[in-house]
Amino acid sequence: xxxxxxxxxxxxxxxxxxxxxxxxxxxxxxxxxxxxxxxxxxxxxxxxxxxxxxxxxxxxxxxxxxxxxxxxxxxxxxxxxxxxxxxxxxxxxxxxxxxxxxxxxxxxxxxxxxxxxxxxxxxxxxxxxxxxxxxxxxxxxxxxxxxxxxxxxxxxxxxxxxxxxxxxxxxxxxxxxxxxxxxxxxxxxxxxxxxxxxxxxxxxxxxxxxxxxxxxxxxxxxxxxxxxxxxxxxxxxxxxxxxxxxxxxxxxxxxxxxxxxxxxxxxxxxxxxxxxxxxxxxxxxxxxxxxxxxxxxxxxxxxxxxxxxxxxxxxxxxxxxxxxxxxxxxx
Amino acid sequence: xxxxxxxxxxxxxxxxxxxxxxxxxxxxxxxxxxxxxxxxxxxxxxxxxxxxxxxxxxxxxxxxxxxxxxxxxxxxxxxxxxxxxxxxxxxxxxxxxxxxxxxxxxxxxxxxxxxxxxxxxxxxxxxxxxxxxxxxxxxxxxxxxxxxxxxxxxxxxxxxxxxxxxxxxxxxxxxxxxxxxxxxxxxxxxxxxxxxxxxxxxxxxxxxxxxxxxxxxxxxxxxxxxxxxxxxxxxxxxxxxxxxxxxxxxxxxxxxxxxxxxxxxxxxxxxxxxxxxxxxxxxxxxxxxxxxxxxxxxxxxxxxxxxxxxxxxxxxxxxxxxxxxxxxx
Lengths: 331, 329
Hints:
The structure holds two protein chains of two kinds. Chain A has two domains: 2-74; 88-327, MetI-like (MetI-like fold, Orthogonal Bundle). Helices cover 75% and strands 0% of the residues of chain A. Chain A is built from 14 helices and no strands. Chain A has helices at residues 2-29, 35-40, 46-56, 62-74, 88-123, 128-142, 145-159, 175-209, 212-219, 224-232, 237-261, 267-276, 280-308, 319-327. Chain A is globular, with a radius of gyration of 24 Å. Chain B contains twelve helices and twelve strands. Chain B has helices spanning 49-57, 83-89, 101-104, 111-119, 127-140, 146-149, 159-170, 189-206, 217-223, 241-246, 251-258, 299-303, and strands spanning 5-18, 21-34, 38-42, 66-73, 76-77, 94-97, 177-181, 209-214, 226-231, 234-240, 309-310, 318-319. In chain B, a hairpin with a 7-residue loop joins strand 11 and strand 12. Chain B starts with a strand and ends in a 10-residue tail after the last strand. The mean pLDDT of chain B is 84. Classes of the chains: A mainly alpha, B alpha/beta. The interface between A and B is medium-sized, with 24 and 26 residues.
């Protein structure tokens, strides 16, 4: 029974990925404009354009191109960049770690800020402390990450000189240096999500505090701290988990701006470069990787639910959290 | 302890400020309970019985209600203590069993851990001892295969089992006083009887004093020593169960008794419902609060609040009625 469910889930995941890859392929191949002409520019003669089209396989029917493309992707061949003939797979492998580190770091910062703030706000719900935190959070969610990035660069890099304003230092040059070079961009990417996490977790915590089992815990003589950590926290995690999955997916997109601002050699900056260079093959590869990551992360989140709340493992689920978790769409 | 009184409530008033005005949920209530005694508090929904129990235990938050009067539990002046010092009593000297055992148990934490947590309220208990105690307590409250069941979660148990777990949690540190707030209302009738028997057994075995809040006079009559009937925040009648049942003197008590379904042929008559609704506590009627629903009310009933008067038949039997006597059958 359990294996059948797991297989079913895998099959569904595969179907979603197939759809994602198809959309990814179509969206770029149905764009107006001819990549061969774009590459050759004004100087291209009709003959050289036709030759290049043939070389790139663009003279084939769309369906054939799709099958070839998908077959190659499955073998790890993402094609070669139109811009510099480098294999797109190499470009992605080289740049992905920077983006992953940036996103992971930013989300660790966001959680480190949001979780305690949510816990305090929920335990003191309705008080000045709660309202103060809410205002702060509202401010954070209102500032776009690129505006925050400028402020951070100005304060921390230019005025205080604490962190570099741009550039990436690999781990091989020292972990401290590496983290320092990512600190400001990670902070810029953390603010918005931190605000979202605080609001979501606070709301869930407040709902949990309203449940009878919290009154029972109090009547047992449990301290407020232990009540928050041991009783309230875990039943309140589903909203946060869902948000985390969605945000991480969206950050792959937001990183385009931040990586450009801070000159980080990640996926976001290569995406921007490839779009302006009309390097469609690279764009396609990066978008596919981003979309696939989004799907996989959210599949992982689905799986996480059952660890957070074992009631969700049962086919017949009951209760508030169970209902809500089921309403979360699959990827 | 000091004077043999386990629980003493004196002149307790609990008011909740609402947008529409102040609701006086408990209105000058005084009660006493000795060690090992069992008291039933009976009343309709909204009569203030649950608020009375929660406030007596010190659970009503001072920020949400205006509270005056005195409550003493085993010599501790509960209402004068801050939250931290009340917490020292909760789970150790006094505990509560709540109405709906499904929402009262933590949805994710295994029941064994929840009971062990309660047992750990005694600082001398180690983690290992608490885990062993959880198994022992599950056996005490009549859950078979306790060693296996400690790993179960609330949603995997039946309603009766859940309430047994909640009871195990409440008695983990052998409290002197146990409040039970409608402990069987959420359960099937057949399960109800067994849970009530369990309360009887635990009270007798461990000498626990019990305050059982219920809307069911029949339940209270069979499983407590004393009964207090509440109506619209006030005590309508109280006394030893036998005395009150033998000679219900306040009209509301007799009406409640007439509303109990009976099975025996000699008493065969359909239960008689009490007409009308309990009064709106935002604007309670003057005089006797039961007046508007009482068939025997006189002008005096609508003008003057009857005081609690002692009745000669048994010590402690008191009623608040201008025209005592059984309702016409």
